[in-house]
Design brief:
Blueprint lengths: L1 E5 L41 H19 L4 H15 L4 E9 L5 E8 L13 H10 L3 E5 L11 H5 L4 E9 L2 E10 L8 H47 L5 E3 L2 E8 L7 E7 L5 E8 L4 H20 L3 H15 L6 E9 L4 E7 L5 E4 L4 E4 L18 E5 L5 E5 L1 H4 L2 E2 L2 E2 L1 H10 L6 H16 L9 E8 L3
Antiparallel strand pairs: 1-4, 2-3, 2-6, 4-5, 5-6, 7-8, 8-19, 9-10, 10-11, 11-12, 12-15, 13-14, 13-16, 16-19, 17-18
C-alpha cells in the first residue's frame, strides 16, 4: 500500500472517538525529550556524522544557490541540491498558482545526474496541488500491505515510484512554490527525519529565492526609475522651456503629466520664411509609449514645416509618417497653426483635436476653431483642410489645450468647455502668461489641488500684444 504522513496540527479528537494508532517517535537530537517541538532541527539524529553531513549540505547548498548568476540558474541549483541532499532520483520545482488548465506550473525538472527532464515528465499532480493549497509538507511511501490509505496516481504507478516528498517553498509569508522529489529504489524509503531535513533545507532555499527576487525587483525598479528620469528629462527638453515673444506676439505653454511621461505635446517655433508655427497634440493614453509617439510627432512637425507652406500639407505628411511608425492602437490628435506676424493672419489645420478658443478682446467673446480632419496615425491616406486666414487684433488670444483639461472630473461631473471659456474671458486684459496660469489654476482649484490627474493636462496660449 501507499502510506503517507503530513506535517500538520490535527485537532484533538472527541472523547468518544477511537484512540489514534500509536505513531513511532520522531528522530530527535540526543538528549532532547521526545515531546519537545524543536521545529526544523528534528531532522538531527544520534548519528553525529550524518548530522554533520546534513548541516554541511545545507550551508554548502545555500552558498552555491546564492551565487547563481540569475533566477533560472538559482532554481536549477535548488533542485539539483535538493535531489542530492535526500538521495532522490528526480526533483521538480513548481511555481505558486496554476496554468491555464488549472494545473501546477512546472518550472524546473532535473534528474539525479543533473540533466533536464522533459517538460511532460510524469509526476503526482494531486500531491503537488495538496501541498500548494494547504501549504503543508507531504511524504508518501509505497509498501506491500495492500491498504488504501492513499490512492496513487497512474503516473506514479507507471513510473514505479515508491517514495515521494513534496514541501512548500515560502518566505516572508509569501508562497513561492513547491519542491518535489521522488525515487523508485526499493531498498530505501523517505523517513520522518528525511522530511524534517527536507523542510529545513527547503526553508533555506526559499529564503535565497525570495531574497534574489527582491534584489532583482529592486534592480529593475532602480533601472526603470533612472530610465524614466532620463526620458522625462529628454522630453522636457523637447517643449519650449520659456515664453516666446515675436513682433508683438507672445506664446507660452505648460504641461502637467498624469504619469512620469506625458503623451501630450506643445511646441512653437519660427519657420524658414519668418512665420510663427504653434502646435499642440495628444497621444492616446499616457506613459512611455505615448511619450515616444509624441517625440516622433514633434520631429515630424518641425521637419515638414521646413518643406511645406500650409498646415494641412505639414499634417498630411506627418500623418503618413506616423501611420507607418506606430502601432494600430495609438493615434494622435493635433492642432497646427501658422501665424504671419507681419499681417496678423493665422491659418490652421486641426486633426481631431479639441478646438482652441479664439478670444476677441474687442467684444470679449470666444470663437471655437473647428476640427478639419481625423487624428494622425488613423489612416495614412487621410486628407486635411486648412481654415483661415483669421486676423488677430491687439489683445486677442488663442487658448489651446488638450482634452485632459476639459475632461477633468470631480465625481461624475466634468470641468467642461464652459468653465474654460469663463476663465479665459475674465482674464482678457492679462498677458499670455497671466491667461495661461489663470486657466490652469482655475481648473486645479475646481478639481482640488491634491486630486490625482487622470490624464495629461496641457495648455498653450498665443496673445497679440500690439505693435
Amino acid at each position: 500500500m501507499l502510506s503517507w504522513f503530513k506535517r500538520r496540527d490535527d485537532p484533538k479528537p472527541p472523547e468518544t472517538a477511537s484512540p489514534p494508532p500509536e505513531m513511532p517517535a520522531p528522530d530527535v537530537a540526543p538528549g532532547l525529550p521526545p515531546d519537545l517541538d524543536t521545529g526544523s532541527t528534528l531532522y538531527l539524529s544520534s548519528d553525529i556524522q550524518r548530522d554533520n553531513d546534513r548541516i554541511r549540505a545545507v550551508v554548502d547548498s545555500l552558498r552555491e544557490v546564492s551565487s547563481a548568476p540569475d533566477i533560472h540558474a538559482l532554481l536549477v541549483r535548488m533542485v539539483d541540491r535538493a535531489v542530492t541532499s535526500v538521495k532522490a532520483e528526480r526533483g521538480l520545482l513548481f511555481l505558486s498558482g496554476a496554468d491555464e488548465d488549472g494545473k501546477p506550473i512546472l518550472r524546473v525538472a532535473r534528474s539525479r545526474t543533473g540533466e533536464d527532464l522533459p517538460r511532460q515528465a510524469a509526476w503526482s499532480t494531486k500531491v503537488v496541488e495538496d501541498v500548494l493549497s494547504e501549504r503543508q509538507a507531504v511524504c508518501l511511501k509505497l509498501d506491500d500491505n495492500g491498504g488504501k490509505d492513499f490512492d496513487p496516481s497512474q503516473s506514479m504507478l507507471d513510473l514505479s515510484i515508491r517514495a515521494v516528498m513534496c514541501v512548500p517553498l515560502h518566505a516572508a509569508d509569501t508562497l513561492l512554490g513547491a519542491i518535489y522529489v521522488d525515487m523508485r529504489a526499493t531498498s530505501r524509503e523517505f523517513s520522518r527525519a528525511d522530511l524534517r531535513f527536507f523542510e529545513a533545507f527547503a526553508d533555506m532555499l526559499a529564503i535565497a529565492w525570495h531574497n534574489r527576487n527582491a534584489e532583482q525587483e529592486r534592480i529593475f525598479a532602480e533601472r526603470a526609475r533612472r530610465e524614466l528620469e532620463l526620458a522625462r528629462s529628454i522630453q522636457s527638453d523637447l517643449v519650449p522651456e520659456r515664453p516666446l515673444s515675436v513682433s508683438g506676439y507672445s506664446l507660452c505653454g505648460r504641461m502637467r503629466p498624469a504619469d512620469e511621461m506625458s503623451g501630450d505635446y506643445f511646441d512653437f517655433f519660427m519657420t524658414k520664411d519668418g512665420k510663427l508655427a504653434m502646435a499642440i497634440g495628444d497621444v492616446t493614453g499616457h506613459g512611455v509609449g505615448s511619450a515616444l509617439v509624441m517625440t516622433t510627432a514633434r520631429a515630424s512637425i518641425r521637419a515638414f514645416s521646413e518643406a511645406e507652406s500650409t498646415p494641412s500639407r505639414v499634417l498630411s505628411r506627418a500623418n503618413a509618417h506616423l501611420a507607418e511608425s506606430i502601432n494600430d492602437m495609438l493615434f494622435m490628435s493635433m492642432f497646427l497653426g501658422i501665424l504671419d506676424p507681419a499681417t496678423g493672419e493665422l491659418t490652421y489645420c486641426n486633426a481631431g483635436h479639441p478646438g482652441p478658443m479664439h478670444l476677441r478682446c474687442s467684444s470679449g467673446k470666444i470663437d471655437h476653431f473647428k476640427v478639419t480632419g481625423v487624428a494622425l496615425g488613423v489612416d495614412d491616406d487621410s486628407e486635411y483642410e486648412d481654415c483661415g486666414p483669421f486676423t488677430f487684433e491687439p489683445g486677442d488670444a488663442l487658448v489651446m489645450f488638450t482634452d485632459g483639461l476639459n475632461e477633468i472630473r470631480k465625481g461624475d461631473e466634468q470641468y467642461g468647455l464652459e468653465r474654460i471659456a469663463e476663465s479665459v474671458i475674465c482674464r482678457k486684459d492679462g498677458t499670455a502668461e497671466d491667461l495661461l496660469e489663470g486657466v490652469f489654476d482655475d481648473a486645479v482649484k475646481w478639481n482640488g489641488e491634491h486630486a490625482a490627474a487622470a490624464d495629461d493636462v496641457t495648455i498653450a496660449v498665443l496673445r497679440a500684444d500690439g505693435k
